[in-house]
Amino acid sequence: MDISEQDFVTRVMRHLFRARGIDLSGYSQSFVLRSMKKRLGRSGAADYSSYLSLLTHSEVETNELLGALSINVTEFFRDKGAFEGFSSQVIRPLLASKIREGGVLRIWSAGCATGQETYTLAICVAEEIKKLQCISAPVVGIQGTDISSKAVAKAKAGVYTKTEMKGLNEKYLNHYFEKNGDRYEVVQPLRKGVRFAVENLLDPPSGSYYDAIVCRNVMIYFTRTMHDVVTMHLFKALRSGGYLMLGRTETLMGTPRASFEVVDLENRILRKK
Ligand SMILES: C[S@@+](CC[C@H](N)C(=O)[O-])C[C@H]1O[C@@H](n2cnc3c(N)ncnc32)[C@H](O)[C@@H]1O
Prior knowledge:
By secondary structure, the protein is an alpha/beta fold. The chain has two domains: 5-68; 80-272, Rossmann fold, CATH 3.40.50.150. It has ten helices and ten strands. The protein has helices spanning 5-20, 29-43, 48-57, 59-68, 80-101, 116-132, 149-157, 170-176, 188-191, 224-237; strands spanning 105-110, 140-146, 159-161, 177-180, 183-186, 194-198, 210-215, 238-246, 260-264, 269-272. It has a seven-stranded mixed sheet. It has a three-stranded antiparallel sheet with strand order 3-5-4. The longest helix has 22 residues, at 80-101. The structure holds S-adenosylmethionine. S-adenosylmethionine (SAM) binds at residues 70-74, 78, 111-113, 117, 146-148, 151, 200-202, 216-218, 247. S-adenosylmethionine binds next to loops.
């Protein structure tokens, strides 16, 4: 006899936690179940029990399921247009104001996975600084955080395979990376000012007074209650007048919503009033 749907979900989640330290308890259950069923169908397993047995004995299937859940899925310049928008509408004016008024430009890449998003931001800032041709550029601090210690360790290493370099054009690849065998390493000047840390967005953030926060493709996995908690944390971590960029499919919910004005709807760029 097969196990119940609820039992199936619970046991798969327990496996992912034990095997990979991924806690899906706060994620939308319907999303989690849909992803599990999708993998069950593709794997050829006859029912919940046989899929569970396959999953617990197979690293490959565990990876496939995590892929279906889009956990840690990321790439450089994910949604190219969004980062173009972020460069011209956020980084450029922020750099100009730091040059005028002084101070460090502080950006938080929240839920940064393996670091591609954080380094993308560092590239965007470096490119904007080049255009300014100023004598002394503002000091920049970019903080990347993620709940997954494995992802953060990879982000800190800053070493990527050819496949992981997807999204980067030749110019940036040659300028900001060094080829070492079949790997690509982030060059030292780009790492300067970039820091990574393990941090759960459900906990009060360790940093505050950020000029901009990029939190993309993270919220979609949260239940409504958790979404509200995270939104409140992002809101508090942002200085007044600071910018927030979400993922293309994401919308801001919860109490702080009214305290933001839309800067660019398509690219989900908001500004704290
Ligand atoms: C799909 S990736 C998005 C990565 C990147 N922001 C992007 O858009 O390319 C989602 C990331 O959110 C992280 N994440 C999930 N829940 C989290 C939480 N509670 N706190 C911090 N990070 C979390 C996951 O570990 C994963 O690396």
